[in-house]
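Input sequence (396 aa), recorded before submission:
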Amino acid sequence: MLLYQKVKVSKDKLLLQKHLQSKSMSKKGKVLVAMSGGIDSTVAALLLHQEGYEVIGITMKTWDYSTSNANGKETGCCNIDSFNDARLAAVNNGFPHFILDIREEFGDFVIENFVEEYLAGRTPNPCVMCNTHIKWRALLKRADALGCDFIATGHYAKVRQHTNGRYVISKGLDETKDQSYVLWGVDQDLLSRTILPLGGMHKKDIKQMAIDMGYPELAKKSESYEICFVPDNDYRGFLKRRVDGLEERVNGGWFMDTKGKKLGKHKGYPFYTIGQRKGLEIALGKPAYVVSIDPEKNIVVIGDENDLDQNDMYVSKINWIKYDHLESEMELMAKIRYKDAGALCTLSSTPSGVQARFFENVKSIAPGQSAVFYEGDDVVAGGIIQSGQLLPFHAS
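Predicted structure, token format:
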């Protein structure tokens, strides 16, 4: 049964009017929970409900799968089944649920940024951009309209108030699921009203909770790791469909080695990323990696694995979390990608952001990706990587 399709809009409006600006009857307060229909957000909502919060569930529609022209089965959080699963959990437990269409605001920023970054020769992280600029703000806006004290999500991370008064994001207990990396851009006013119920739990325990709560199908539900608007995980195909004439504009650029020698033609610089090894379609008799990208000259530099090594990077668009600024140099752990184990660095201020100087070389620092700096488990700050492997020659 397609529950989402059968619920009339008028019923939602009545529920909305009932809760609009109403005061919570719960001593815990009223909380707006982002529910994707997956196991994590569902369990988070049900846990808060059991703890005595007055829960309102909301599912955000960020993308219309039917417009992606991608091949394969519809997956992820923006499909009818996910909406139905979220609504069913809310209805079964006696709290309201709404669908929030944010496709326009999501597309205008996240998708355009995604395309623009690749066209600039950088590698974007759309999930960070979405959390930073869209989802949390959209949640807080609706939370205020509904008279909610808090917002909550199913992320595996923790949030607390530090002794200095600032709100701090920390790593989740389950290191294999920790999502603090993708939350570095959430501002203080948002963190001050954020609850992350799963931060102190392991995934295996969440699966057991779902079973105990009567939702065994959620424990078996496969998780989607693709970008929501690239459901087939083919970002190159997405760029081709999104940008008219892109292939013709960028096809036929040169692969070069680190000394400036031409090695052969490539299919266009936006279709390559720093550190890429597979899919280069060029035979050199040895493993080759993308070392740097020059979008202006449509050059992709390839080299050996050790050509990816760097010991410093520059990061801009800094969002300070644990402290409001950097008073002096600090030794911190830096993560340059989501699954990165982290590397020790010295962090110092620059006029446009920060500089991280690593104690040992790190590989594949990719402009456009996020760099997140940790003091123990706490996020000190995060930002967008600006420096990467520079062209080691004058390309003419």
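Checked by second reader. Confidence is low (pLDDT under 50) at residues 1-15, 389-396.
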